[in-house]
Predict the 3D structure of the following.
Amino acid sequence: MSVRSVISCTLLLVASTTATAQDRIQWKFSTGDTLNYKILQKMDTSTKLGQQIIKQSVLQEIQMSWKTVGNGASSTVIEQVFDRVKLKMEGGAAGEVSFDSAKPQETDNPVIAAMAKSFSSIVGEKFQLNMRPSGAVTDVKIPKKLLDAVQDSQAGREGVLTEQMLKDMMKKSAVMLPENAVSVGDKWKTNQDVDMPFGKMSINSVMTYQKKEDGIATINFTPTVTIKPREGIPVTVELSSAAGRGQILFDLNKGVVSTSQLVLKLELNITTNGQKIPQVILNETLMKLSN
């Protein structure tokens, strides 16, 4: 065999190996593992009331811990705890408001008092769920303290917000990873249908394995959002347009999501008492591993 033939065969073999190289981008859990995540969410809202435009900005920080308490044949039992919630709100009828669950304070401000009451039913409470390696969530258990708070709320009394709805929200808000091994350049689709108090929101995303560098897999995705308004409620929400983009950074060696971010812009029409109110929401969410 000539030198040229050897070189040609070698290059062909390398190219073939590179083209078929696949990675399993899936969670790896061991009993006793603890992951700490920080979630930052910024939401800017612009609402048109007649000739007036009301703008509001909400910045929320959530510190969460995930603890693996058991491993099954196809899923892992995880306890999730909201360790701390910080919130800052500017604009709107309430003006500037801030809250930190780690720094409770007495207040005469009804908005802050309502926040403290709501978050007290979440912070420190344990949510339990089963998670598959792909991130799919089943068997969600909601803390009794939170269920009691929901049932005592107006939305709970009217049946607009239910225990099943909370469970579905947690199931469908999970970061979805591919079920099978994938190669750089591969695409796949995910679908999430979530029952919300105002209707059913469907999020269909096209996921792309963009690149792999230093053991980190980059997945870019483009979501398509639709809303089916709920019938028989005093406030209806219709979606005029939606645009967004997102990215997941996955540590292939550790088997964990190191970063997940999503930017989503929604243009809505809210109808109440026969009045149609246009609203634009720009939502930016970042989830980052902190340990």
Observations:
- The CA atoms of residues 18 and 183 lie 9 Å apart.
- Residues 3-20 form the longest helix (18 residues).
- The radius of gyration is 23 Å.
- Confidence is low (pLDDT under 50) at residues 11-18.
